[in-house]
Amino acid sequence: MSLPAPSSDALAASHALQHLIAADIARNSGAISFARFMELALYAPDLGYYSGGAAKLGRDGDFTTAPEMTPLFGAALAHAAAAIMAQSAPTILEFGAGTGKLAHDILTELALLGVAVERYAIVELSGELRARQEQALRGFPQVVWLDGMPDAVDGAVIANEVLDAMPVQLISKTPSGWCELHVTVDDGRFAYVEVAADAALLAQIARQVADADALPVGYVSEVHATGCGFMASLARMLAAGRGGAALLFDYGFPAHEYYLAQRAAGTLMCHYRHHAHADPFYLPGLQDITAHVDFTAMALAAQDHGVDVLGYLNQAGFLIGAGIGELLLRTDPADARAYLPQASALHKLLSPAEMGELFKVLAVGKGVALPAAIAAHDRSHRL
Hints:
- It is a single chain.
- The protein is an alpha/beta fold.
- Helix content is 37%, strand content 23%.
- Helix 4 packs across helix 5 and helix 8 (225-240) packs parallel to helix 10.
């Protein structure tokens, strides 16, 4: 691969993480699950991609998210959050708040609308990102940071590109059935090794993988036990509260589109300095590792633990229903310098060829409903 060379300090940090992972492999009889490898690569204290100190987001990072493109994204979410809070409580909880820009844009728009937010809580695993959030949100005294998930939650919950960064198990179809791909060290390099799937993984495959028996030998994909566990915890939090809804934005598919025979190599993808590639063993700790989200599995996990699926729709439908087009028109089209960058960003957010169709929104909750203009775009029947 032809990728940008890391600095000497970054390379040293990656080597330290590789030694840590290799030691974990040695302690576990020579192999660990890919989910464990991904967990360490992303979240190992001080060395993992999200727990280390390197910038992740924006022009100088590895990828750009929707809030970084335009404040219109956060402004549109603010209108949806206001409708949810009006039916429940004046609080917002955000998971994985990135640079803090989404929170900033939401709170700015809510203030413009005259909607009071008593508390905006953030759960953030990255120390580097939390520091950036604290700087970006210093003008909003209602913002607080939590060290873990609360027992109960009311109001609106937001998670933008959170599920895709949760560790996944890699599975492969063999002539004798399903196996799990583990990670070992072979001649000084990380490599895959096939391990027979245990009963828990077979049950997860049976529940999650559509038409598993019909898939061809050699088929590789992911199952999302960690994501399902997160959805179960989120559902319990909402069920224990007085009413509220979670809006989860991410790229992915329902199960019947995810596990297609032609998607035989899975969806695992890595992002390094705005380059996308498929090698998760390249410079651990310096690159993001993600997988597309199986929204059917996420919806079922939430539903199984006490909340309702309020809606499932593509990002374009959600944003249009939330009024993002009207928000754009606050900028005078005659002012080309101001208008054209916002219109271009909006095109990327809404276009089926860009983020409008690949990115989806799953809404789950209790005691509230989505605004009618958003619910009009619901595709829950496709889950």
